[in-house]
């Protein structure tokens, strides 16, 4: 990774912290906009970098929110990294909508699935609406902003 990409990675991570501070009230805890920079980072820098931004972005979001699920946030951060990588993979292949749908479905239903067994059905079902709204907001914003930002960085920074 060259100096320009490292700097850009840092900017996206800082934006993830800002997004983590933008909380949307949820049934249980809250949902944040920390994944928008990670999803855009996956488009601009590639899926692995976007996944790293998602991992650290989620942990920072959870930390700002008081770590309501304790060490389970590490599991969620890993899931977010994988989902952002998948989004980036399909986006790079020209299948933007499919990448977005997989991110929303994965974040809403699959990533929360371990909590069905760990915490219980009530928690799982209670989180679905909030996760769906948060996933949709993050994904829609990323899909709307990514084309312009990727063009900007490709032309001006030669990334």
TrEMBL record:
Keyword Transport part of the UniProt annotation: no
Segments traversing the membrane: 72-91, 97-119, 131-154
Lineage, top-rank taxon, reads Bacteria
For this UniProt record, give its keywords in alphabetical order, as a comma-separated list.
Membrane, Transmembrane, Transmembrane helix
Instruction: Kindly give the Pfam families that the UniProt entry links to this protein.
Output: ECF_trnsprt
Name of this protein: ECF transporter S component
């Amino acid at each position: 990774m060259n100096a320009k990409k490292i700097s850009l990675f840092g900017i996206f991570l800082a934006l993830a912290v800002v997004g983590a501070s933008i909380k949307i009230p949820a049934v249980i805890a809250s949902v944040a906009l920390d994944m928008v920079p990670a999803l855009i980072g996956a488009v601009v820098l590639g899926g692995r970098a976007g996944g790293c931004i998602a991992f650290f972005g989620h942990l920072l979001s959870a930390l700002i929110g008081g770590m309501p699920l304790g060490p389970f946030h590490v599991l969620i951060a890993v899931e977010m990294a994988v989902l952002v990588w998948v989004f980036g993979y399909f986006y790079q292949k020209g299948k933007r909508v499919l990448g977005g749908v997989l991110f929303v479905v994965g974040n809403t239903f699959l990533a929360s699935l371990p909590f069905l067994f760990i915490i219980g059905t009530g928690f799982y079902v209670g989180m679905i609406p909030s996760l769906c709204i948060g996933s949709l907001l993050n994904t829609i914003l990323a899909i709307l902003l990514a084309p312009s930002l990727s063009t900007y960085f490709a032309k001006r920074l030669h990334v």
